[in-house]
């Protein structure tokens, strides 16, 4: 019986290692520098209000170079823009209503572009609205009218616009409107936590292996007893 169990346990350990490895798989990683460079080079960025669409990569790079440094370009692309400078901001529909519900008449609203690299490799800019009002932490509102508190982490955890296979380029302090600050490239959605599933599966497998080992050991013991005492 001991031999059966000792042979089974290494198999369990190996299985656990495989499961842990699978659980640790992460979204494709792209650095902020690489993602920004892809934006600068690509003439096919959906909703690109800053660089437009079409033309060649060389023309796009030359156009951007004539308008300032890469730091200037990145700042202009990702900085929050006051809605009072845009007659279409906040928008009509659910997004505009959500902004008004949160900020009220005395609040301030900004629009912020976020660069998205989809799992397919395509690039696009999406617009989020940053709502500030007295006495409350700022919130994000998406184009569908969903409101998110908790900054970037809150948005990544709860949004249904992006997946964990998408990458985004955005200020880390996504609801800040003062400018500057750290820019990050992160997944568009937090990955699903598979840890409970991992633990549950491992426990079930371990119990089954030990039960099987005990059954095999008991059967072998009965055979030995039958041979000694016919």
Give structural notes.
With 230 residues, the chain is of the alpha+beta class. It is 45% helix and 17% strand. It has helices at 2-23, 32-41, 57-65, 70-78, 93-103, 151-158, 195-228, and strands at residues 45-46, 81-82, 108-117, 123-132, 139-141, 147-148, 167-171, 183-187. Strands 1, 2, 3, 4, 5, 6, 7 and 8 form an 8-stranded mixed beta sheet that branches. Helix 1 (2-23) packs antiparallel against helix 7.
Brief digest:
The protein is an alpha+beta fold and about 230 residues long.
Keywords:
8-stranded mixed beta sheet; 45% helix; alpha+beta; 230 residues; disordered N terminus; 8 strands
State the separation between the terminal residues, measured CA to CA. Answer: 22 Å
Order of helices and strands: HHEHHEHEEEEHEEH
If you average the pLDDT, what whole number results?
A: 82
Give the number of helices.
7
Rg (CA only): 28 Å
Biggest pleated-sheet summary: 8 strands, mixed
Low-confidence stretches: 1-5, 15-27, 193-205
Shape type: extended
Provide the structure class: alpha+beta
Number of strands: 8
Give the strand content. 15-25%
Helix content: 40-55%
Topology of helices and strands:
Layout: H1 2-23, H2 32-41, E1 45-46, H3 57-65, H4 70-78, E2 81-82, H5 93-103, E3 108-117, E4 123-132, E5 139-141, E6 147-148, H6 151-158, E7 167-171, E8 183-187, H7 195-228
Parallel strand pairs: 1-4
Antiparallel strand pairs: 2-3, 3-4, 3-7, 4-5, 5-6, 7-8
Helix pairs in contact: 1-7
